[in-house]
Amino acid sequence: MTGRQLTLRHGGHAADVVELGAALRSYTFEGREVVHGFGPDDLITGGHGQILAPWPNRVGAGRYRWRGEDQRLPLSEPDSGNAIHGLLRWNAWQVTGSDAAVAELETGLWPQPGYPFRLRVRARYALDDAGLEVTLTAWNEGDGTAPYGVGQHPYLTVGTDTVDDATLTVPAGTWLRTDEKGLPVAEEPVTGTPYDFREPRAIGADRLDTPFGSLVRDADGRAVVRLAHPSDGHGVDLWLAEGTEYLQIYTGDTLAEPERRRAVAVEPMSCPPNAFADGVAVVALEPGDHHTLRWGITPW
After folding, report:
1. What string of DSSP letters covers 36-89?
2. Opening angle at CA 95, ends 134 and 142, nearest 5
3. What is the pLDDT of residues 114-165, one digit of tens each?
4. Higher-confidence residue: 168 or 232?
5. Of 195, 152, 155, 192, which Cα lies nearest the Cα of 172?
6. Of 88, 150, 167, 198, which has the fewest beta carbons less than 10 angstroms from its beta carbon?
């Protein structure tokens, strides 16, 4: 159902990438599930492992204005009246390179209603001693300046029955207050709010489908989100590097059972929700130019 399966291995690390959407299907470390994914014959639901381009998250009513022209995208989240997670999730991507520990896939995006621009997008997955590194690169192959944003939708797990017992750390100084449709209405400091995860704490009953900004980076320029098991001394870090300006944390509350609150989606994003309409952190991709977003996972 998801096409060709590319299995990558390096030491104790193993990952599966699929042809459909170039999605990350699974990732284990020393036999322990790190990314809660889906089976090779399953329909992808909940965005599991999918690449989100040419915008991540939502565009309200699918409407935005770019370079003086109004655009309207198909409403792929009809219950809320939004366009969600881009246009490439259901493309069959072409495998352009593969070996024991690396997979590269590409796809093209042609001009269409709501997005009259032409892109080429490449996904590169690579395993090494530290874990998994993902590089998403887009080139503008058209003759006009294209609005662009990108993200990805992995679900992390540390083996707890639900996310409630897992300990979460999010190095973000701001959170985006959203309306009933998931669209930002304000960016506010996390200090003194339930969204302050700068110090590790259990998720508990918190329900998160929340964008975060003002990421705090280490000396290597990485912001690191950590999910830890409460007692077993293991966990997983998701790091955000080049091109990642925002992230979304989702505790899976709206997923159907048995997936509800099974894992935490930590979504690296180049821009926040509704960026095409609000103009926040949208990349103006000139003809011939490219944009790169890099993120990765380090189990421990």
Report:
1. ----TTSPP-TTTT-EEBS--SEEETTEEEETTEEEE---SBTTTTEEESBS-T
2. 80
3. 999 999 999 999 999 999 999 999 999 999 999 999 999 999 999 999 999 9
4. 168
5. 195
6. 198
Nearest to 175, CA basis, from 201, 193, 202, 163: 193
The enclosing domain of 182 has a CATH number of: 2.70.98.10
Contact 103, 125 (CB under 8 A): yes
> What is the residue type of 287?
P
How much is the pTM?
Answer: 0.97
pLDDT digits over 162-215, tens only? 999 999 999 999 999 999 999 999 999 999 999 999 999 999 999 999 999 999
Q: What's at 85, amino acid-wise?
A: H
Q: How many domains, in total, are found in the chain?
A: 1
Structural domain boundaries enclosing 257? 5-299
E strand residue ranges, 141-208: 146-148, 151-152, 155-156, 167-169, 172-178, 184-189, 201-202
Separation of alpha carbons 125 and 132, rounded Å: 7
Sorted by sequence, the CB contacts under 8 Å of residue 35 that are 6+ apart come out as 15, 24, 26, 27, 49, 154, 155, 156, 157, 297
Q: Which two tokens stand for residue 8?
A: 């990558």
**What is the enclosing helix (H) or strand (E) of 278?**
helix 275-278
Tokens of 155: 């679900």
